[in-house]
Design a protein that fits this description.
Elements (H helix, E strand, L loop, with lengths): L1 E7 L2 E8 L8 H6 L6 E4 L10 H10 L3 H25 L2 H12 L2 H4 L2 H8 L3 H13 L1
Helix pairs in contact: 6-7
Length: 137
């Protein structure tokens, strides 16, 4: 697993948690070919396949169907971003935690809770309270 995070005032703010077998990147940095403002960090031991921008462009020329793969990856990243934005606008912290638990319950045992709290836009203390409250119900 890999997390993508930003740093502000010394605090790490999780932007996304990539599970196994997906494309993980600071996508805007990759596409624009500029230094990224985000950091990628492995959360578990990983075996990574890495491709550079120039080589990807060559693959597009050599294997035109790679355009479809890239489009599908970009579409999924867009959908994920839209869902996260909507959740931050519409859902309470407890609702965000519930959704995270339903969609990514396995991560509750694999990812440090302060990272899950950051990803969910909740303080670690609030995440702990919400988790305890939901366990009692």
């Amino acid at each position: 697993m890999i997390r993508l995070y930003d740093t502000k005032d010394g605090d790490e703010i999780a932007g996304y948690i990539f599970k196994e077998n997906v494309f993980a990147s600071s996508y805007d940095s990759f596409l624009r070919q500029v230094p990224g403002i985000q950091t990628l960090e492995t959360l578990e031991e990983c075996e990574l396949l890495v491709i550079g921008y120039t080589r990807l462009q060559q693959l597009y020329d050599e294997l035109p169907k790679m355009h479809i793969v890239a489009r599908k990856v970009a579409e999924q990243r867009f959908i994920n971003a839209q869902l996260m934005l909507s959740s931050f606008i519409l859902d309470s912290p407890e609702e965000r935690y519930r959704k995270f638990a339903v969609q990514h319950g396995d991560l509750l045992l694999r990812v440090p809770h302060h990272i899950i709290a950051s990803y969910s836009g909740i303080t670690p203390v609030s995440l702990s309270r919400i988790g305890r409250r939901l366990m009692v119900q």
